[in-house]
Predict the 3D structure of the following.
Amino acid sequence: MSFVDQTAEFFANLVGYGSSPGSTISAVLGACLSGLTCGALGSFIILRRMSLFADMLAHAALPGVAIGFILAGSKSTPALLLGSLVAGLLAAALTRTITSYSRIKDDASLGITLSLFYAIGIWLLSWITRRGGDLGAKASGLNQYLFGNSAIITTVDLLFLASAALVVLAVIGLFFKEISSSIFDPSFTDSIGLPRKFFENLLLVLLTLVIVVSLKILGVILVAALLVIPPATAYLLTDKLPRMVLLSAVLGGLAGFGGVYLDFVLLLDEEGNGVGGGAAIVCLAFLGLMAAFLASPRHGVLGRYLRHKRLGLKTLRENLLTSAWRIGERGGELAAIPIADLASERGEEPSATRLLARRMNGSGWGHLQSDRLVLTPSGQERARTLMRGHRLWEIFLQREASLAPDHVHAGAEEIEHFLDAETVRELEELLDNPETDPHGKTIPPGEKS
Amino acid sequence: MTRLALELSPVLGVAQLWFKDFDTWPLLMALLVSLSCGLLGTVFLVRRTALLGDAVSHSVLPGIAGGLLLAGIVLEHDEESAFGASPTMLFILAGALVAGLASTMLIEALHRHSRIKPDTALGAVFPAFFAGGVILIRLFFTDTHFDENCVFYGALENIFDFRDVAPTLFCSILVVLFFLGFYKEILITSFDRQLSGALGLPVGLMNLLLISLLALAVVVAFEAVGAILVIALLIIPPATAQLLSCRFNRVLILSALFGLSAAFLGCWMTIILQVAGFATLRAPTIAVVASLQFLLALVFSPAQGLLAQALRKRALESRILEENLLGSVYRLGGTPSAEAVTLEEAATRLGYPPEKLGAALRRCRIRGELTVGSEGILLTTQGREKVGGIIRGHRLWESYMIHEMGAATDHVHDAADHIEHHLQPSLVKELEKLLGHPELDPHGSEIP
């Protein structure tokens, strides 16, 4: 079937008219629910620096699944959930034991617990699947817990997922203040008498719960990714915790939906099995993270690069303006400074200065015209403000920071680009409107008032 | 006779299996993989980047799939050349190397150029790479020999001759040579960045080489133990070794030995278990054996083990009890002509229930530090000498706290009570010198 046909089929299934509406609807519901819950809880997890802890817990759930299966003798959801819950909590306890009673560091103890539990899980699975007989036959599909498979979600699974989502969201809603203060300011939390240990353990239990119910959809290896990637994306897009939680939940849910869709459309094989959604969901979420990493307005690489560029250009132009002002002070005509003069003032080759002066174009402060730097009135005004700030700062450094007169120029040269009107006014007040700078040069007057 | 034969038959069966079916090649493969993982893992562990192994082992998957895919496009047919080094293998290695390095660089870029924390970056990148690999495999290799299960379980069982082992052998030799040749550089760049900068050692190049070797080791281990279980061999034997020694060279050697022994015992146990009707695979068994080694070391390590810690704590506690008992008898009995003291009196003075001192009393009596008569407890000369030393330390410390630290007279007793059990003779001598051999303590009692 073509891509378009598959898409049509997918949405037909969603509204109940396709060939397999039941399984598609429960796959989408399950993936969205677990994406949403993981996203919401994950915000706290990454801020609490528990990302790798979550990964460890997820891997560590595997032996629980295997033992739950062996004890129950079937793939009954409650048994497997209980097994993995117990295994996760045991793994958390083992990690703590290792770090507190030996010199092994945090990250290594996570790695040890992870591979220890995971090895036991794989070991048990390899036994179960090789065993044959009654148990071996029932075990087919237990492998699904490795990658996850949204196509095998049953109503019971959905019920568990929905109740876990309800519990997690309710706890987050009820204790939002307490949990966030225990994350951001542990000592404050202690000082106002909140039981911080309780909230930390609460977070741990919720984490285990979420991992365990999402295991069937996302698999032990990938479930932690959904606890980390959407929150990290949201973290790059907003600075407010409530918004981050909300955004990350939405992103998680979207990734869940999109992953199941992609799986249905692209990866479905002849027997109608996709990868199971887990891999596609994680890949989609990761693409989102990469997009935010590049293009987030505040914290993205691109935005920062552009801001950096703009600042560089502004500094370059302003340096030209101050050079021009100095020439003007010595009797030159500020409105049109010859490039040759500018070059000798700056100690550059005229060709280099010409290249720099060309970059004044488009600034509104001036432009290069017939080998002169022509400054507009606003350019001249800016040059005056810069010079005033520069020299006031020099005096400030000399008087208040007790620097020698020949040591103050470099500091002023850097700060002149960042002095705003408010700071300049404060400097004036502090220094009693001086007239000359430490080098004996006149300080350009401020706004006529 | 027949009964004996019957009873012995399982043992004989095992012995037979041991010699006949204990296949050489899988064992050799396992040994080689665990050797190189044990060595490399130690370096990453001491550099506090233990989980980088985790990240690389997950993220080579798309590289392997991509390499295989590219090989299928570029190569007409898979020509098998000498020693298993087929062109396809080279493609896979190159792909894995690229993916491994790309993932570590992406992790680095994510936390260096945005406000994402390093652990979050790690946790975000490697599952994503892994998921990408899974999708590639599902899209392009659904019907080939490329087995998803191999990712998890490894395929030590499918190694039949030298050709399968050759790449791993090559990799292990490379790793061992690297460690022999650059031991000093590895040591310095791992522990002292400033020194390596001062010596002009190429820290960045060393990192790159180590990560490349790691990626190589992970790829060749991929076939043997599976992509995920390789973490067990990268982290657990080094951690086990770290529990037993603090010296880098010893940790390195111990870690290699633990890796080798886990591989050997794991292969052996798989066969024993098979005979016992518990059929498993070699790779996970090896990982479980490695884990057991770690747990044993965690509990029984002579210096750092939980057991040793508990014993040390107990020994200290009972020594403190004994010393407190002696001190209490000494103080209650008076110095020049001692009176007998009952256990109850001694305990009441210390604020303990009397039964808590029973064992301490017994131990002191056996050592001849006190005698128990019908009237109560009496110190012997030996006991008097010992307790004199302790009380001397106690009172000297009190004087020290008042004279040198300016503590108030009524605040010094509790602190001295704690420290009297830990004062070394050399420290007592220094205190004497510092305080000018005082005769009386701040409360006016005589210093013995």
User: Anything to note?
Assistant: The longest helix of chain A spans residues 196-237. Chain A touches chain B through 62 residues (CB under 8 Å). The longest strand of chain A covers residues 366-369.
